[in-house]
Amino acid sequence: AQTVTQSQPEMSVQEAETVTLSCTYDTSESDYYLFWYKQPPSRQMILVIRQEAYKQQNATENRFSVNFQKAAKSFSLKISDSQLGDAAMYFCAYGRTFNFGNEKLTFGTGTRLTIIP
Amino acid sequence: NAGVTQTPKFRVLKTGQSMTLLCAQDMNHEYMYWYRQDPGMGLRLIHYSVGEGTTAKGEVPDGYNVSRLKKQNFLLGLESAAPSQTSVYFCASSLRDIIYEQYFGPGTRLTVT
Predict the structure, then answer these.
(1) Model confidence over A11-55: pLDDT tens digits?
(2) Residue A85 backbone phi and psi in degrees, to 5
(3) In this model, does residue A1 exceed pLDDT 70?
(4) Burial environment of residue B110 by CB neighbours within 10 A (0 to 12, 13 to 18, 19 or more)
(5) B101 Cβ under 8 Å from any chain A Cβ
C-alpha cells in the first residue's frame, strides 16, 4: 500500500521569507500524480499544486513550487515571499494513474504552517 | 455555482443513533469521495464512487455505508454511531480520475457521545 509521510507537524516562517515543506512517499509504481492541498482555518481544502511523475520539470504556480525527486521519492513544497494568507494546514497527497476501479488519493498527516508577521 | 455542499454542518449524536450526511455537487463531476479527518491522522478515505450507481470501499469503510443514486449526490450513512466516529467529515468530487483536482465541501463536524 502506498504511504505518504510528512515529517514536520508544524512549521513557521517570517512573512516575506521562504519556507519548504517536506513530503516523502512510498510506491512501486512509475505512473502517478502528487499533489499539495491547503486547508486554511475555514477548513475548505483547495489544490495548491500538482506534479505528474513522468515529468522531470518541477511544477510551479506563482509563489508555490515543488522539488520533485522521483528516485528519492521526495516531493517538497516551497513557498516564496510568504504571506499571512498562506497560514494553513498543508497536505501532501499521492494518486496512482491508470488504476481503474481504484482511483483514490492517499494523504499525508499534514504540516501546519504559521506565518509570523 | 455552489460547488460542493454538505448537509448538515454540525451534528451531535448519541451512541447507537443513525444519521445520513448529504453531499451535493453541481459541477457534473463523475467521481465523489467521503473522507474523515482526525487530529494527527490527515484525511482518510471512507468510501468513494466513480459514477452514478457505483460505490467502492476506501481505507476506513467499517461502520459506514454510502449510496450514489444520482450523479450529483453522494450520501454517507452511519447505521449505529460510535464515539470512534467522532470526526470531521469531508466530501469531495472530481471531474474524473485522480489526475483531476478534487473539490472539497466545507466539512461536517460530528460528535458522538
Answers:
(1) 999 999 999 999 999 998 888 899 999 999 888 899 999 999 988
(2) -70, -5
(3) no
(4) buried
(5) yes
A42: Cβ contacts below 8 Å, ≥ 6 apart: B106
CA A33 – CA B104 distance, rounded (Å): 18
Q: Are strands B31-38 and B42-49 parallel, antiparallel or unpaired?
A: antiparallel
Residue A91 Cα, gap to closest chain B Cα (Å) = 8
To which residue does cell 513522468 refer?
A54
Q: Rounded distance, CA A43 to CA A23, Å?
A: 21
Q: Which of A45, A52, A103 sits opposite B90 (nearest CB)?
A: A45
- CB-based contact, B44 to chain A, within 8 Å: yes
Contact assignment for A46 to B104 by CB distance below 8 Å = yes
Q: Tell whether B11 is within 8 A of chain A (Cβ).
A: no
pLDDT digits (tens, 9 = 90+) for B85-101: 999 999 999 988 777 78
